[in-house]
Amino acid sequence: MANLTQELGWSTGRVNAVQEAASRSIARTAKCRRVIPKGPQMIGHKSVPVPQIANIAPLQYGTDIVATPIHIWVDVDIDDQHINDEQAVIDLIEASGAQLGRLEDEEIIQGNSIAAPAANAPWGQQLRNNALRRFQFNAKPNPAAVTNIAAAARRPTGLELLTAITTSKDALEGAGRPGECGLLLHNSLYGILGLPLVAGAPPLIHQVEEIIEGNQMTGTSALDGTFNAGQTAAILFRLEPHAVDLVHTMLPTVTFLGRSNGQTHAN
User: Fold this and answer.
1) What is the pLDDT of residues 170-209, one digit of tens each?
2) Quick check: is 204 in a domain?
3) Structural domain contains residue 262
4) Count of domains forming the chain
């Protein structure tokens, strides 16, 4: 906040309004954080320890995996015509926050499969420590844990989707992971849940809520929407005790980067 006040002469109130706009926009557009439980705040940490429960009896913790924080950013340029127009600045920051929310979802779901950003890229995801682990939620280390929706490279029917969710929940139960689950789906699949199986019936989402024992589900474009073989279009996971959580090492912050050619640069 200090550099926005000092470099641009903005009041504390204006800086707060801009920062709040960024947080508000990200909260609206970052979908995964609506379902994935929030982990411990680790603001300022250079690494994130991830506890591992060993698959042995009696149950006990194994060696922690140490993950790298990921810096996600979106650059913005504010011209001199708009730099002192508070609403115009807020609108631009909200647009960049929406982009940041999409990038956060992509990082959570796709992780390692995302290419490193090009030099001077206007947005992207950057590892803080290349030597540490980078996770991705759509990784399939155990092929037996994958449920085929059987859509044959087309959008599945409501019945196919409902069957796949039921099969996946049964698989979790069979693996000793009962309880309430969260469900992430590609946006097009999430839309199917608003439809009935047959005319006059209630929307599918009510049956899905019974199957997963809760209503923690959402759609995101970060999952696959082609429905090609081997692609991940949905993820079902246990919430309590949670199979995954989301840890932030930095809060959304608007930072002044400099000025040139009548433009104020920030991210």
Assistant:
1) 999 998 889 999 999 999 999 999 999 888 999 999 999 9
2) yes
3) yes
4) 2
